[in-house]
TrEMBL record:
Identification of the protein by name: Histone deacetylase
Sequence ranges assigned to domain Histone deacetylase in this UniProt record: 64-289
Record CDD domains: HDAC_classIV
Coiled-coil segments on the chain, per record: none
Biological source species: Deinococcus oregonensis
InterPro entries: HDAC_classIV, HDACs, His_deacetylse_dom, His_deacetylse_dom_sf, Ureohydrolase_dom_sf
Keywords: Hydrolase
SUPFAM superfamilies: Arginase/deacetylase
Family: Belongs to the histone deacetylase family.
Any one Pfam family match given in the protein's UniProt record, by short name: Hist_deacetyl
Amino acid sequence: MSTPVSTFPHPYRAFTAFLSASFAAGPPPRRQFLPAEFRETLLAGAGERLPLLDAPVLAWALAERIHDADYLRRWRAGEVTRAEERALGFPWSPAVVERGLASSGATLAAVQDALALGLGINLGGGTHHAYHAHAEGFSFLNDVAISAQWLLDEGRAARIAIVDLDVHQGNGTASIFAAEPRVFTLSVHGANNYPFQKEVGDLDVALPDGAGDAAYLAALQDSVFPALHAFAPDFVFYLAGADVLEGDQLGRLALTPAGVRERDDRVFRWAALRGIPLVLVMAGGYNKNPQTLIAARLGTLDAALEAMGQRV
């Protein structure tokens, strides 16, 4: 899908946002995903805030820096089992592969923006359940892991923090970087939610079912920011999952829209005040009320632009 860049002036026109395929083309049909008409509403709102660009397609060689070569070969060829399809969450098709490459390409393109301007945005991404050699939880390629490895390999960052605030633990990411001291994997997630067998990250904060704004923001203040300060990253990936909201079909927490906005404000301000480049990926969101989800997504964009936009 070709998405023209708007010609009217944007308040933060120095920045752009990349459309990963989950927004441009839509994911495979599942009741939890945002219906097409609401995706268009979300894209219209995002386009009022900054120019939108098509996601470039990731080169397979870059995926191989993180993922097993035979695993990638089989998925390219469609040589996958029913068990692998069930673990992913939908059947294999060429579109699944194309979406994975576009989503990962969008995150890598956002990295380039972050290096140049301080902020890069992928309107999708956050496929944090993809492991080195197997797919899980709607995640075929681990877009953030691929981009983090690129930064290390190219010498563009030395200490990377992956701040995963999706309601589900980033198990694939934690596994991939378990032995990599230059990458700090941090996850705040539902204790009793998928994945039911968690990996061990550098910091895991598990919250009980029904935890709301106060408990969540306390976890940020008491655990997340002290850990980030101690690690002292020079690059940050932020997975801003909207599935922490009350009413999410795949989440068990109970944040309000105001709580999610406060969460986002704090993360972006933390990075902006320290001059740390940050890539935003939207990660999960499956709310029963599409308007609630759209408002949260746009609020995350506003928080990013307001905090990081002060630097350009």
